[in-house]
Amino acid sequence: MTKPDTDIPDPLISVIMATNREDSPGFLTEAVESILHQSHRNLEFLIITDGELDFEKNEYLDGAKSKDKRIRILSSVSSIGPSGARNVGISQAKGDYIAVMDADDISVTDRLKKQLIYIQKSKADLIGSAYYEIDEKGAVVGEKNMTLRHADVKKTAPLFSPVNGPTIFARSEVLKNIHYDERFHFGEDYRLCITLLRQEYKIENMDEKLLFFRRGPDFYIRRRGVEKALSDILNKLYALKLVPVYRYPLLFPFSIISSLMRMLPKSFLPIAYKIKYRLYNSPKEGYHTAIATEQQDEAEKPL
């Protein structure tokens, strides 16, 4: 699905970020500053307010906009959710590429520059990256790695989201053609990527960590509940179409069980997530084993 690159020496990158009343003013400031100080300077920064903000955040954003003309504020009086807010930003984006940012994370200085180089060289349609996890004080408390190459991303989609949502970097025409599904207020990045994969778009991940992802004290609580579990199950079932039918007996139970983890009591969630992260981050376990097993199965098939 990839279109040939036009040799634009310094393409415009549109960064879209939604924010709402619940976001911390301090975290919001760090997120905004991390984009404004990117080494790739030719960017526009679209900040979508998802509902009315408090005075402190409005004052900060107005001040930032007056100092840096690359900022554009798109306001929504009523809350439209993360998917709706991002779609608003995408519809107004003028860039050749679109990057996603969350209002409590921090992008490394060379994030956009490195993602631009990678997407052009790989001819991918959408890419993500690994990231560091930080606590509310900014201390690194973990990391999250991802499957890298497109073929492997596709194979593991029924198990895990293909990309880390706040690291998404895509060709503008891709996201303008395939939007976030606004029915999903959780797992919207997962749904978007599955839709793209099912339509033969190329998705890859960089192994370099290009973002500091905020994992605060309420991290586990915000990912718990019936709605979250249902969204996760629907996404994983939607992704099964990406793999051969003979893999269903292995993938289906794993997908359901991992989704139901979101229904566990709060005290069990940290343990469950540690197990899940181990599957992500160990090069010899988890989805890497699933890939190797499938490759072996395919190699052993009779011609």
Tell me what the structure shows.
This protein has a domain of 205 residues: Spore Coat Polysaccharide Biosynthesis Protein SpsA, Chain A (Alpha-Beta Complex). The protein has twelve helices and nine strands. Strands 1, 2, 3, 4, 5, 6, 7, 8 and 9 form a nine-stranded mixed β-sheet that branches. The relative contact order is 0.13. The C terminus is likely disordered.
Give a short overview.
The protein has 303 residues and is α/β, with parallel strands linked by helices. The chain has helices at 25-36, 55-67, 81-92, 111-122, 150-156, 172-177, 188-198, 219-222, 226-239, 248-260, 269-281, 287-300, and strands at residues 13-19, 43-50, 71-76, 97-102, 106-107, 126-134, 140-144, 169-171, 203-214. Strands 1, 2, 3, 4, 5, 6, 7, 8 and 9 form a nine-stranded mixed β-sheet that branches.
SSE layout and pairing:
Layout: E1 13-19, H1 25-36, E2 43-50, H2 55-67, E3 71-76, H3 81-92, E4 97-102, E5 106-107, H4 111-122, E6 126-134, E7 140-144, H5 150-156, E8 169-171, H6 172-177, H7 188-198, E9 203-214, H8 219-222, H9 226-239, H10 248-260, H11 269-281, H12 287-300
Parallel strand pairs: 1-2, 1-4, 2-3, 6-9
Antiparallel strand pairs: 4-8, 5-9, 6-7, 6-8
